[in-house]
Recover the amino acids of this structure.
């Protein structure tokens, strides 16, 4: 089943006050130009077997004030110049088969702030990979496996402040093996 609840392509795309459940993608959004911006605000996407939100390319990805319960990957932000993922709730009720809560990569300046993430995310609750600059700020992570906050694959600049991590099953609270 390759169902997509909301599909955005090129230009300035925004999803607000939307609710969708079950399928492959809650939001699939692709930017065409360097100035394109994608945004998700005050929405809920639950039970998607691929991504609650899949955002690719462009100038900025803004994901705020939204809920992503029981998605395989909650928020996947790929190849944006800037990524802001803030004030979201991501919860998983399964036993560690979901991949990441929030994943941003590569070549981005990412700010991941004030998110509440809980459950058994197999490859990390909050993950930034191959990014230029990453800030993990004021996030709350509970019950993860793997790593709660993970900066992987050559993050150039890493800032971590005021994050709360509790009840990890195993793994790392912070994991940054290749941060500069």
């Amino acid at each position: 089943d390759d169902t997509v609840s909301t599909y955005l392509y090129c230009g300035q795309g925004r999803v607000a006050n939307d609710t969708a459940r079950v399928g492959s993608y809650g939001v699939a959004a692709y930017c065409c130009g360097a100035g394109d911006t994608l945004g998700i605000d005050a929405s809920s996407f639950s039970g998607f077997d691929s991504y609650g939100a899949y955002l690719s390319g462009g100038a900025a990805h803004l994901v705020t004030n939204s809920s992503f319960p029981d998605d395989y990957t909650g928020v996947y932000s790929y190849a944006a110049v800037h990524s802001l993922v803030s004030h979201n709730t991501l919860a998983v009720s399964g036993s560690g088969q979901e991949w990441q809560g929030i994943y941003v990569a590569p070549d981005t300046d990412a700010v991941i702030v004030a998110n509440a993430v809980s459950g058994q995310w197999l490859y990390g609750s909050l993950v930034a990979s191959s990014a230029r600059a990453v800030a993990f700020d004021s996030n709350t992570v509970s019950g993860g496996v793997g790593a709660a906050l993970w900066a992987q694959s050559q993050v150039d600049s890493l800032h971590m402040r005021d994050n709360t991590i509790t009840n990890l099953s195993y793994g790392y609270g912070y994991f940054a093996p290749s941060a500069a």
Q: What stands out?
A: Residues 34 and 172 are 35 Å apart (CA to CA). The radius of gyration is 15 Å. The mean pLDDT is 85. The longest strand covers residues 44-56.
